[in-house]
Automatic annotation (TrEMBL), chain A:
<feature type="transmembrane region" description="Helical">
    <location>
        <begin position="235"/>
        <end position="258"/>
    </location>
</feature>
<keyword id="KW-0472">Membrane</keyword>
<protein>
    <recommendedName>
        <fullName>ABC-2 family transporter protein</fullName>
    </recommendedName>
</protein>
<feature type="transmembrane region" description="Helical">
    <location>
        <begin position="12"/>
        <end position="31"/>
    </location>
</feature>
<keyword id="KW-1133">Transmembrane helix</keyword>
<feature type="transmembrane region" description="Helical">
    <location>
        <begin position="287"/>
        <end position="312"/>
    </location>
</feature>
<feature type="transmembrane region" description="Helical">
    <location>
        <begin position="189"/>
        <end position="210"/>
    </location>
</feature>
<feature type="transmembrane region" description="Helical">
    <location>
        <begin position="349"/>
        <end position="370"/>
    </location>
</feature>
<keyword id="KW-0812">Transmembrane</keyword>
Automatic annotation (TrEMBL), chain C:
<feature type="domain" description="ABC transporter">
    <location>
        <begin position="2"/>
        <end position="230"/>
    </location>
</feature>
<dbReference type="InterPro" id="IPR017871">
    <property type="entry name" value="ABC_transporter-like_CS"/>
</dbReference>
<protein>
    <submittedName>
        <fullName>ABC-type multidrug transport system ATPase subunit</fullName>
    </submittedName>
</protein>
<dbReference type="InterPro" id="IPR003593">
    <property type="entry name" value="AAA+_ATPase"/>
</dbReference>
<keyword id="KW-0067">ATP-binding</keyword>
<keyword id="KW-0547">Nucleotide-binding</keyword>
<comment type="similarity">
    <text>Belongs to the ABC transporter superfamily.</text>
</comment>
<dbReference type="InterPro" id="IPR027417">
    <property type="entry name" value="P-loop_NTPase"/>
</dbReference>
<dbReference type="GO" id="GO:0005524">
    <property type="term" value="F:ATP binding"/>
</dbReference>
Amino acid sequence: MKLFWMELKKIFTWPVILLVVILNLLLYILLIEFELEYFPNGRPAKDVFQVEMEMIDRYGEVIDEDEFADFIGTYDERVKDANEFLQTDELAIKAGVDSYEEFRNTDIDDMAAEEMHSHIMFELEEDLFWELQARESIIERYESRVTGLEFLIRYQSNSKQEKERIREMLQNRKFQYYSELVLRNFENYSSQVVVIILLSIAIVLSPIYIRDKVRDIVPLQYTSKKGRGIFHLKWRAGLTSIGILLAIHLLIYGGLYLTNDTAHYFFMHVYSMSNNPVWYDITFGEFILLTIVAIIMLGYVFGILTIACSALVGNYLTQISTQILLFCAFAFVMIPVGVQRIIETMYLPWVVPTIYISLILFVCLTDRFVKKRELVKDI
Amino acid sequence: MKRMRITLLELQKILRSPVIVLMLLVFVGFNLFTILSNAYMKDELKILNQIVQEYGLSFNDESLKELKRAIEQGVSSIDHQAETINDFFNQLTFENYTNYSLDDQKTIDNLSLRYLYYNQASALEERYEELDIEVIGDGVIEKFNISGIAEELILNDYEKLAMRFDEIVEEQEYKTWFFAGNPYRMHSQLFRELMSIIAIEGVILVVLISAFIACYERDNRTSFVTYSTKTGRRLMLKKWYASLLGTLIVCGFLFIVTLAIYFTTFDYSGLWESFVSSGINWEYKFPYVTWYDFTFIEYLGMAILIITTTLLLISTLTFGVSVFIQNSYMATVFCYLLLVAMFVIPSLFTFSSLLLLLGQFNPTLLILNPHMYFNGLAGLAGSQYHEIITLTVWMVISMFLLTISLKRFMRKDLV
Amino acid sequence: MLIIKNISKRYGDFEALKEINMSLENGIYGILAPNGAGKTTLIKMLATLINPTEGEITYNGKNIFQLDDDYRDILGYLPQQFGYYKHYTPRQYLTYLAALKGISKKIAEARTDEVLEMVALSEVKNKKMRKFSGGMIQRVGIAQALLNDPKILILDEPTAGLDPKERARFRQILSSLSRNRIILISTHIVSDVETIANEIIMIKNKHLLYKQDVLSICQTLEGKVFETVIDFKDLANFSERYFILGERQDKGKTMIRFVANEENSDWKPITPQLEDIFLYKYANESTSG
């Protein structure tokens, strides 16, 4: 146990911790901050988000015809408010606009109307008109919920299975009632987090075996009482470190995500808030858990490959280069397919599970190979 | 050659490592993929070369008239009823189009592309008249909330740029043919996408090579043997030359192979002498208003030169850091993070206009924006001498750092 | 002539060497000292790898740090930990070092073969060093030190990892080279230098203890080294009073060799060996490593 702690301490040296902290700060600014600070991003996204929160409270996930009529009623009332506003607004009077209907149909070439339009929308930052836009987009989506899926079957689906799935959704009335801004934000956010986690793992674990090789103390260790057990000890310390890094990152970035206040959506099905159809009828909350599991798996796969690489190669040059290539492979293939679009019907239903299974198999084989090689290797 | 012997031997130590070669190949493969994923438009682009061949590289009212006449003739040869070109294309629905013979379809494609160029070219004069450079400058100041000295500097720049803009208009520099910026965006594709990818790949390799050359003896625990030879610690200097040479080799390889693929895919044969400030090359909100009347080939050369120089500078910077840290792993990771920091940190300077402006002069931003070189309308990075100032300042900084760390190394106890 | 004048070395508060003075002429010098006595510090200074805190080292009247490459040009140095590039062959490595030593390309090739022949590595000169044994690596190290036919040859623990046969061969090489150069061998194995060194240098507690030929050093204990046979049970008692140099068990009796300032008719006086002086002088220091 004492040796195990010593190996852990050797992995988390101060300079390495410092580099990881710097990495996190920089990439937080570069990748994460935007998804937190600018969520929902701009208008009317912000207003859509507000209206939807209200809707979830009132109607729940599924909006039936009565509830929709209620929603239209609210919309009409808001239009009335808008009319009243326009009738008293100076610029609107000047432009000869006295109803919301006219306001919507103003001509861009009409200077006075244009001035009034931009004044109300951008300078006054009057929420009402943005809110109306948001409500209109929701109404539009509701009205086209059936034709939208039909359109997907006809023009956009890539495979037989996808067509079948969409037909099944149509049949069981699994419609999209809400915008996908929460879902997309989460998908982007989680893939940025994966990038940070993988880079942190790479920085911390790359030196795990090479550190000793470069100092040439390996023969010394192998002839000591503990013998080649040191290799396995390091391996376990490495696995523990991956766990530690994953836990810390998931806690921090998970906690930060909660500041986006999307808890309202957690118990809704993913299909009710996604433009792209998905294979499974899971809720957004379940989807978040699935993503976390996927991140943990990817973290371990990447981490074990990093450790294995460190055990196999003889110097840092080779290690860093392989890490860069490995990271690129993950960033360009694994993150989009295995995290961002993990349940979307874009890929055949077996694609993502197969990728994960083969990754795990590959890692197991690597593990066996490296350990076997280490047992018979001449020092 | 005799003087180069040690330098070459030092370089050899790193370049004989198969991973460097592997990385180069993977990178070139990636570049090839990037180029080919845009290759679908290469045939459409060829039309422009025909236009240039027939009407010359620059255009004027006369040649545009000729072009229009030719299109009209082409149109009437296909559809005798069409009175104007506009009429013809307006009534051309997808179904109509498929009713024509394949040959006719080709001619129609050709004509519609020519018409696109004609339209864009004849609208330019008006579009350029509408541009007010100083108003754009005010917009930049407003957008970034600039005040104080920085504001004066920017206003001064835009005043000068306005003069240069007038020159472009007067000399009709903008009236040269180039691939239509909208929709093709070839300038962005080549310089913004491809060149900055090359630059990033270059950075990845150059930092690795420089750090590992600098720490090679330490990593292999051969310091005592090598630094007690006649060459002694001057070896470090030769190692610096070796990393510069390595930078040039890596750069050369990436540029030559990638650009060779690019220019065999896309036909630029008639356009080498076209101006980057061509109005046809108008891609986004503004056209490219270059401070100097660079032709395409000159601009390409300058971009390669700037990126290569920046990489040499990054190599020097990395080398200096590595001599200081003497731990190749830490030095490499540190330098990568440093370069990322140069990208991130200037955006945090919103509290001070001057810092915000000064923050633009950094090597990372320089190599990531080759499409904006010498462009006056490049936001905060548009001043006339932006590239040369950035390079000079960082050359001084990196040489200073290198000198300090070499001097320290020369006197240091090697234990 | 190499002159070491009043050399001291401090690392912060730690003092590694204090006021060392000596001059070295052509011949073989053996530096005998346990690890930690400061011999590697002294040797690294002679190799210009570390700077003295005080004092200076001159070669033919000129400071070696000012002579710089002119000095290192005539220096051959084998460090205690001899590093090498694992994926290089001895030939590639020596050719590289020849370049660093300023040996022209034409000469370098022949010279490389020559020194590899000297250390009996010709057969493996094109094999990668990754697979070499410790002794083979050490011989590559000796070969590289000889590459530039140095006027000053400094070898730090050169026999580490060598088997007895290789040691003998090594001593032979050194003897043949010693006529017109300064050879400095640091070791804690007395037999390495006992027979071939013209002079022995001993450093103790950061100070120079001796710099004399083997005979004169041995004379410092002349008449004080004895041999006798005692019962094993008396050994503890005996070792309290006298310094034991060595012991051998024989049929329940113990034959011991020791230092005493008195005489006894039961004791047989014997001629002191260098080993005896070494053990006696460093009695209180660890000699491990």
